[in-house]
Design goal:
The chain has three helices and five strands; from the N terminus they run αβββαββα. Helix content is 61%, strand content 12%. The protein has 151 residues and is mainly alpha-helical. The strands form two sheets. A three-stranded antiparallel beta sheet has the order 2-1-3. Strands 4-5 form a two-stranded antiparallel ribbon. The protein has helices at residues 2-16, 56-114, 132-149; strands at residues 23-27, 33-36, 45-47, 119-121, 127-129.
Length: 151
């Protein structure tokens, strides 16, 4: 059956370049159905095959369009795979960064809570010690930062 289809497509493609051609169907000695333009045995059934010339330019444009479509699909697939990979890496980095920020925020809060005096460094390198109200504000700020980072 497959062989018959292949032969028929070959005959059809050969006749596509010809304006008129006769196609015959016959059985060989083994009982296989064959298609040809010149039967070797008779009786052979003459088939009415309609053919037309192949428009090479149209075929080439269809092939180019299909190639572009396949390339676009491939590019889109590769981009989406890259985006998924980048997103997974970003999520892993984000989780790692978040854990590190939590540790630092907790250390900062513990340091602020354990210190009697807190200071801020001036542009000229001198230290300015914070007042009691500023220390309470800094501790509250460190606590809220720690809570936000360690959720």
């Amino acid at each position: 059956m497959l062989r018959s289809l292949i032969i028929l497509s070959l005959v059809a493609s050969a006749t596509a370049s010809q304006a008129v051609a006769d196609v015959y169907k016959f059985k060989d000695e083994q009982g296989n159905i064959l298609y040809t333009d010149k039967p070797t045995t008779l009786p052979a059934e003459r088939l009415n095959v309609q053919s037309q010339k192949t428009d090479v330019v149209a075929v080439q444009s269809r092939q180019e369009a299909e190639l572009k479509r396949l390339q676009e699909n491939s590019r889109t697939h590769n981009e989406s795979a890259n985006q998924r990979s980048e997103r997974q890496n970003a999520e892993q980095l984000t989780a790692k960064d978040k854990a590190e920020r939590c540790v630092k925020a907790r250390e900062r809060y513990d340091s602020y809570m354990a210190s009697q005096r807190l200071y801020e460094e001036q542009p000229n390198g001198e230290r300015r010690f914070l007042s009691s109200e500023e220390i309470d504000g800094a501790r509250a700020s460190a606590k809220s930062a720690m809570d936000a980072m360690c959720q």
